[in-house]
């Protein structure tokens, strides 16, 4: 069931979203060669809690960290560790803030130092794919119009869209209905309506879209070792189009 959000609930999600966005802005300055992914996780946890909110990923289905830190061929759900970032790496940091029972979720990818032309183009295309999807998130469209637009754009740029991990409704639960695929035919699924809140979060690979999961049960990688990036926003649907809750 898709739960429409009240003004009160959206206000709390908006507050959480601004904290997430501000944290990402801080990470843009913090992330550089020589920083470990564990230090990034500590930065995220300290930032969220210092604003009176909870890092909702920590403890979710047993996940032990405040953020996911996914480097190079890791698509999503990468564990923070003692791995030290080096010049040329790319990293996606995914976080969720919980504010008085309401969630906001955003992932962002970062270049570490000087990256290859291929990595830079992947970052640019994936970010653009997010906004291509957001353009379709308007009342009256159907959910699959988002994914169709993303897939058409990404494959036209010579990259692939991950199938195994998707966007989702969000609110009092981190994951709610509807499911938001980043691929597929248009004009399918629930009609987008005012009051809905959901994420769009395309994960884009240089090579195959297929995935594999490490023995930790969380860390998802590209099957061919190719680079992967992700960008994600939480949206609130209004009569005047989508409001991005996770940007400053």
TrEMBL record:
Keyword presence, Protease: yes
Gene3D superfamilies: Creatinase/methionine aminopeptidase superfamily
Catalyzed reactions: Release of N-terminal amino acids, preferentially methionine, from peptides and arylamides
Sequence positions that bind a divalent metal cation 2: 105, 168, 201, 232
Cofactor dependence: Co(2+); Zn(2+); Mn(2+); Fe(2+)
Residues annotated for substrate binding in this entry: 77, 175
GO molecular function, one term: initiator methionyl aminopeptidase activity
Keywords annotated in UniProt: Aminopeptidase, Hydrolase, Metal-binding, Protease
EC number: 3.4.11.18
Cofactor annotation remark: Binds 2 divalent metal cations per subunit. Has a high-affinity and a low affinity metal-binding site. The true nature of the physiological cofactor is under debate. The enzyme is active with cobalt, zinc, manganese or divalent iron ions. Most likely, methionine aminopeptidases function as mononuclear Fe(2+)-metalloproteases under physiological conditions, and the catalytically relevant metal-binding site has been assigned to the histidine-containing high-affinity site.
UniProt domain Peptidase M24: residue ranges: 12-239
Domain of life of the organism encoding this protein: Bacteria
Pfam families according to UniProt: Peptidase_M24
Top EC class of this enzyme: hydrolase
Residue positions binding a divalent metal cation 1: 94, 105, 232
Primary role: Removes the N-terminal methionine from nascent proteins. The N-terminal methionine is often cleaved when the second residue in the primary sequence is small and uncharged (Met-Ala-, Cys, Gly, Pro, Ser, Thr, or Val). Requires deformylation of the N(alpha)-formylated initiator methionine before it can be hydrolyzed.
Family the UniProt entry places it in: Belongs to the peptidase M24A family. Methionine aminopeptidase type 1 subfamily.
Subunit text: Monomer.
Protein name (Swiss-Prot/TrEMBL): Methionine aminopeptidase
């Amino acid at each position: 069931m898709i739960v429409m959000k009240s003004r009160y609930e959206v206000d709390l999600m908006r507050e959480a979203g601004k904290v997430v966005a501000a944290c990402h802005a801080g990470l843009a300055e913090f992330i550089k060669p020589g920083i470990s992914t564990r230090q990034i996780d500590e930065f995220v946890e300290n930032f969220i809690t210092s604003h009176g909110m909870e890092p909702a990923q920590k403890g979710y289905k047993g996940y032990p960290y405040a953020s996911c830190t996914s480097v190079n061929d890791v698509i999503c759900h990468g564990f923070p560790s003692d791995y030290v970032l080096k010049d040329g790496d790319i990293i996606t940091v995914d976080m969720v803030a919980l504010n008085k029972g309401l969630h906001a979720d955003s992932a962002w990818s970062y270049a570490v130092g000087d990256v290859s032309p291929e990595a830079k183009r992947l970052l640019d295309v994936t970010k653009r794919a997010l906004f291509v999807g957001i353009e379709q998130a308007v009342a009256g469209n159907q959910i699959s119009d988002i994914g169709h637009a993303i897939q058409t754009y990404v494959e036209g740029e010579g990259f692939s869209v991950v199938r195994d991990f998707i966007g989702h409704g969000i609110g009092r639960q981190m994951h709610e209905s509807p499911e938001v695929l980043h691929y597929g035919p248009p004009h399918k699924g629930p009609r987008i309506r005012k009051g809905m809140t959901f994420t769009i979060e395309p994960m884009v690979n240089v090579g195959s879209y297929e995935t594999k999961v490490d023995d930790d049960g969380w860390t998802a990688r590209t099957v061919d070792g190719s680079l992967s990036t992700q960008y994600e926003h939480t949206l609130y649907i209004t009569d005047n189009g989508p409001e991005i809750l996770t940007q400053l």
